[in-house]
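ok new one. same drill as before - structure tokens go in, u give me an amino acid for every spot. 612 of them this time. try not to just spam alanines like last time pls lmao
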């Protein structure tokens, strides 16, 4: 062996070890970053409705998503602490993302047994991309996070499942069943699309086994039956819950009808986004070229690019950069830079026959992963590409499929570390948008300075001064009027589940009595028809005169209560600027019933008349 070649080895080896260490640090830095911000901010609409849902999901007879029941044990476990809920959601999501990435990468080259540490480090780095889910900083467990976690679980099961009947294979088929059940509990539309996708994937990969498919079906059906009994006490009761939920979704006019969700959306990546994708692609390819080189020059180039990726990630995580990428509504598609880099790596470095060595099973999984983000988004009223990008880890893993010939050729995953670093940087860029522009909050989370205990469990969060004053004033007004925790409230503001959660109210009818849609009044009436007259008569009213989402007061007349004549105003406060997504501050008023017995009789009379 030439002397120079021997002297080159320490430089190449050192660069690889440093790259691996930098990749591990990148993973830890991003995790620490997002976990730190779980104590910051709150959205008064969507996120607050998730908290209301989990706090008492059995309070509602109609629900399309059952995520509140699934996450209820977690809510109890952490004592209702909001920051702890977010932390658990982040850790669960990352853990599943890491597990899926490791399972998939290991399956691509199962004959390669060397470099297991590099495999784990690469998988963890790629798994960080699962945190793109929190691009809008709605980290509290919700139906979107459950749907995403269900897809991750299902995909893991699919990779483990085989046609042969073994313990490991059976575990995979059962895991598919569990994932399908969770998908249904999160979003029935996603579950239906997932079932079709899984069946086609199994068919193409020739894994179909009637006996094992029966095991999957039995798992899903068994868990659904158990859920039905636990939630509604009977299968018919659960079926009625879902039937009514389907009817209610038509009332609102929010874009969830069948013909509206069966669509093909377009996307448009603006020039800055195209440039960003190209930069990520080129940088990753250069680093991979260097990593595949056995020369010191190539190893040093690879290390420099790797450190560059890590530096960008660290600058964002440590708060040294306060601007967002500004790539527009489709910025989540920045992940394509890493996807294309992975695919091109296989085509360039896996020659001469890079595609022939990929099996039908691997192609089937890759194709399923390509469409998985759309299965995740299916049913939403948002653009499918924009929403699907939150599940961009599947696109990323689909791209890594073409790495198989390179892995087999090189015998380890060290060359792929730059891809993990690139994925980390993209994830950090997208998370930065959520932390700098959190949904329906007025300022970057880093500027929040006021610590306040919120809700019945006194969860400490760091809020903006305006949001803290808003909550403090609402709680003070409720307490001074004699309001007791657990008192039912009807929210006529149409946008304040956060206020109801803060004062400890029982939000009746819906976790969020949502206003601002053509069918908001009709939906509110339908939901409250399933609430006992005793609760309606005893309910207090949260009112926002002239609010942009206010529910018309005729709702109360339809329930047998005259508002505001039969109520006494006991508190008033100003909303924070930006609350609910509206810049102007507005007045909110709290009313308590003065003639509950009359309202009770009137409600019963209306119900009796409707029964005839």
């Amino acid at each position: 062996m030439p002397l120079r070649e021997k002297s080159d080895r320490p430089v190449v080896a050192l660069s690889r070890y440093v790259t691996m260490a930098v990749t591990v640090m990148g993973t830890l830095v991003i995790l620490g970053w997002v976990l730190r911000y779980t104590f910051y901010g709150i959205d008064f609409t969507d996120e607050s409705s998730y908290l209301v849902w989990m706090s008492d999901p059995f309070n509602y007879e109609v629900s399309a998503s059952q995520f509140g029941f699934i996450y209820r044990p977690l809510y109890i476990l952490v004592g209702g602490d909001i920051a702890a809920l977010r932390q658990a959601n982040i850790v669960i999501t990352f853990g599943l993302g890491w597990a899926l990435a490791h399972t998939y990468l290991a399956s691509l080259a199962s004959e390669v047994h060397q470099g297991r540490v590099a495999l784990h480090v690469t998988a963890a780095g790629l798994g960080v991309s699962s945190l793109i889910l929190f691009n809008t900083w709605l980290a509290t467990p919700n139906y979107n996070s459950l749907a995403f976690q269900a897809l991750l679980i299902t995909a893991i099961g699919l990779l483990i499942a085989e046609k042969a009947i073994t313990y490991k294979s059976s575990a995979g088929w059962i895991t598919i069943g569990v994932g399908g059940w969770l998908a249904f509990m999160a979003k029935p539309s996603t579950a239906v699309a997932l079932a079709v996708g899984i069946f086609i994937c199994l068919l193409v990969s020739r894994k179909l086994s009637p006996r094992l498919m029966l095991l999957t079906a039995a798992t899903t059906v068994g868990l659904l039956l158990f859920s039905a009994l636990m939630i509604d006490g009977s299968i018919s009761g659960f079926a009625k819950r879902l039937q009514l939920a389907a009817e209610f979704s038509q009332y609102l006019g929010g874009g969830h009808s069948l013909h509206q969700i069966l669509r093909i959306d377009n996307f448009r990546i603006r020039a800055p986004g195209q440039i960003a994708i190209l930069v990520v692609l080129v940088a990753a390819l250069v680093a991979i070229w260097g990593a595949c080189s056995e020369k010191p020059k190539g190893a040093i180039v690879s290390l420099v690019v790797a450190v560059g990726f890590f530096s960008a990630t660290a600058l964002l995580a440590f708060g040294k950069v306060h601007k967002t990428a500004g790539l527009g509504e489709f910025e989540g598609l920045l992940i394509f830079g890493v996807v294309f880099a992975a695919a091109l790596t296989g085509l360039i470095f896996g020659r001469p026959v890079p595609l022939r060595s990929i099996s039908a099973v691997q192609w089937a999984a890759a194709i399923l992963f390509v469409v998985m983000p759309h299965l995740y988004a299916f049913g939403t009223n948002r653009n499918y590409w924009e929403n699907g990008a939150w599940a961009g880890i599947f696109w990323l893993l689909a791209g890594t499929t073409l790495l198989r010939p390179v892995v087999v050729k090189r015998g380890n995953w060290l060359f792929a570390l730059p891809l993990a670093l690139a994925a980390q940087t993209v994830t950090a860029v997208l998370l930065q948008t959520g932390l700098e522009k959190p949904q329906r909050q007025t300022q970057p989370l880093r500027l929040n300075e006021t610590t306040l205990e919120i809700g019945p469990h006194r969860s400490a969060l760091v809020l903006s001064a305006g949001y803290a004053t808003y909550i403090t004033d609402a709680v003070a007004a409720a307490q001074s009027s004699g309001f007791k925790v657990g008192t039912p409230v009807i929210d006529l503001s149409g946008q304040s589940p956060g206020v109801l959660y803060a004062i400890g109210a029982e939000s009746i009818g819906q976790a969020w009595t949502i206003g601002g849609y053509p069918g908001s009044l009709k939906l509110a009436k339908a939901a409250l028809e399933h609430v006992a007259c005793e609760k309606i008569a005893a309910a207090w009213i949260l009112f926002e005169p002239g609010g942009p989402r206010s529910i018309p007061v005729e709702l109360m007349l339809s329930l047998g209560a005259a508002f505001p004549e039969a109520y006494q105003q006991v508190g008033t406060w100003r909303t924070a600027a930006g609350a609910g997504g509206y810049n102007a501050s507005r007045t909110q008023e709290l009313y308590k019933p003065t003639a509950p017995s009359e309202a009770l009789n009137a409600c019963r009379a209306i119900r009796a008349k409707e029964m005839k």
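Residues 1-7 have pLDDT under 50 and may be disordered. and btw Strands lie at 450-454, 459-463, 488-491, 506-507, 540-543, 567-574, 587-593.
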